[in-house]
Amino acid sequence: MSRRNAFYAQSGGVTAVINASACGVLETARKHRDRIGKVLAGRNGIVGALREELIDTSLESNAAVAALRNTPAGAFGSCRHKLRSLEENRAEYERLIDVFKAHNIGYFFYNGGGDSADTCLKISKLSSELGYPLQAIHIPKTIDNDLPLTDNCPGFGSVAKYVAISTREAGADVASMCDSSTKVFILEVMGRHAGWIAGAAGLAAEKEGDPPHIILFPEIAFDEAKFLARVKRCVSRYGHCVVVASEGTRYANGEFLAQSERRDAFGHTQLGGVAPTLAGMIQTEHGYKYHWALADYLQRSARHIASRTDLEQAYAVGAAGVEMALAGKNAVMPTIIRGTGKRYSWRIGEAPLESVANVEKTMPRRYISRDGFGITAEAKDYFAPLIMGEDSPPYVRGLPRYANLKKQLVPKRLKKPFKI
Amino acid sequence: MSRRNAFYAQSGGVTAVINASACGVLETARKHRDRIGKVLAGRNGIVGALREELIDTSLESNAAVAALRNTPAGAFGSCRHKLRSLEENRAEYERLIDVFKAHNIGYFFYNGGGDSADTCLKISKLSSELGYPLQAIHIPKTIDNDLPLTDNCPGFGSVAKYVAISTREAGADVASMCDSSTKVFILEVMGRHAGWIAGAAGLAAEKEGDPPHIILFPEIAFDEAKFLARVKRCVSRYGHCVVVASEGTRYANGEFLAQSERRDAFGHTQLGGVAPTLAGMIQTEHGYKYHWALADYLQRSARHIASRTDLEQAYAVGAAGVEMALAGKNAVMPTIIRGTGKRYSWRIGEAPLESVANVEKTMPRRYISRDGFGITAEAKDYFAPLIMGEDSPPYVRGLPRYANLKKQLVPKRLKKPFKI
What we know:
The structure is a homodimer of 420-residue chains. The first copy, chain A, is 34% helix and 16% strand. By secondary structure, the first copy, chain A, is α/β, with parallel strands linked by helices. Chain A has 2 domains: 4-142 and 303-358 and 389-400, 3-Layer(aba) Sandwich (Rossmann fold); 156-301, Phosphofructokinase domain (Rossmann fold). In chain A, the strands form 4 sheets. In chain A, strands 3-2-1-4-5 form a 5-stranded mixed sheet, with helices on both faces. In chain A, strands 7-8-6-9 form a 4-stranded parallel sheet, sandwiched between helices. A two-stranded antiparallel ribbon of chain A has the order 10-11. In chain A, strand 4 (105-112), helix 5 (114-129) and strand 5 (135-140) form a beta-alpha-beta unit. In chain A, helix 8 crosses helix 9 (274-286). Chain A is elongated. The two termini of chain A are 34 Å apart. At the A-B interface, helix 6, strand 9, helix 10 and strand 13 of A face helix 6, helix 9, strand 9, helix 10 and strand 13 of B.
């Protein structure tokens, strides 16, 4: 087979380790120069392909590529552009194929979550329908940990570690203050439909009374009276109460707390108001002094405290994606398979995109304690290895030094611009 | 002089390194067993003395004491109980002296900010008035960096490092997303009356276009039109805009952007709501998609990313406090004096509490750029060494291991309980 170029793009919300996957792709491709020519990266994700804005990664030094492993967020830019169905928007898919043809792209590596797995599958199908040879590989990435068929998702272990450490640290803070001041601390974390991130905070607790005292999951209908009673019990018992709440916490009728009427003090329409809503309830019912934090992007970009396990897995799925492409695979995704031994081990597996796309994996009920406010021992066994190990980025003058890329675009070859 | 016991208490909002000061006090006192008997620590700060709840630190192992250096928040508990003037509340001061007498306490180490410096001074005065020999030493601690006569305050360097790193990391995140999604990110940080913490975020920027693009200081009157114009200019120029806003950001008339009715025990308004207020303005005026984070306790408890310089200084002021007491000093505070050489150096100085108490040091105007939205090169020179160096706590199973103290109380010797 003649040498063909590859296209790599980052998709959706970025993570602390998605660039480690990029590093895995680029370094592995560089080992196979006989088969893979240039790796062109989409500037700002798949829209970079639509606009024919392709970053020539061959101009980046080996050192710059290696530094991607230590760099959070999306080094080439990401996007939230979702390609709709082939019927609805065939023009976009055809444009992609045109761009791929123009740049002799034979390998398509799409690094994202559930939506991008679906896009990747569609592109694979269309290329085959149009008779254009393309191997489309999806490289998993999502802090939400909601992809099926993989034990866990690269990106999740690091946010889990961030949330568990932050819970332990802020928990120590409120424990210091609670006698005469703050009694309740609420940390609002990401996870719109799945409680994996909130659940991981449970790792901070090692013995009775340790924070977090209450975890709120999207999977468990929020019961205000039960919640307020539990807060009171914690304050009576431990002097304070630490709550970790998923942004997706909702009532039995499906309504998000963040979209409820009580949220009006901070009137905004995006999610991210669970903590002040809960604080308001607690204030009204119990009058406790509270503090709350909204970690938002901090939690998913915190490369400084990334999990080494997560980093290694993120790199490995990138590298495996390239190996799979070279082995002739198409419409597949590398997965992480957990070993069955007592000591944690993992290896790379493979899943067909047909089974991955648009399936969302939420927390199994058996991972959530019977009262709905915590995690079980089985959940702890699941979470614990994913946050293992530290891997500090290099520091210069007290700050982490992140990759600095040239990001030079290759000249356009298509005449007409494309309107997105 | 016969051997006398010491009393140590933590006061006010805790920090990532206040326990390093405790470690400095305890380890130094242990070196002088001929002069200092037991160090008794106030359970939950000064209220522990009022209630005669005194933790016997002599029961803690050397290893547990050493681990304090790696442990955030207040290991013995802190409080926001402010002793009022001697005239208003002489009973509390007299009670303290009674407790000190009952436990043969000759050294009083009070580890806090401006309010506790004032308390420490009053106790020193009263003990002298009552003819009770007591050496009262104030050990500086405040993330707010607002104490006078010291180059900087232990606790500040670590929160500065946290905020600078978080700004760089979240800034990389929004830069990845801004083409098709989030264009503005706002990080709300602590600093009620002084913009030191917000200002330190400016260290994240190394070249034109780096985040933060806008810093809002309590020292600069907020001008909505000017702010919104600057946000727009950043988005046009860089594609995105990262704002770091002090919780104390206020209008020219003194009104806080996040005015709240709640007040803490010191009578300070409890703030937290600048970020959503700014986000609302931006949304209305420009319609940009935004995200915001409220770091709250996370920023001041983040021992995992503490500044080594800060840790060393926090330890040193604790150790120096004990040395000063042994040298016969009273009503003084160890300070940090910056060397004048090009390479950063520091040494311990000494300030009389008369000159420290109730003086608040805000950001000098020359540290803030002319447009009021950033920091000057002189400010960078000031901030930069304070965040230098890392000093990871030990990790066990992916999480930092913090000190675990016995915190056993000594038997009470006074008959009557004291109502606070």
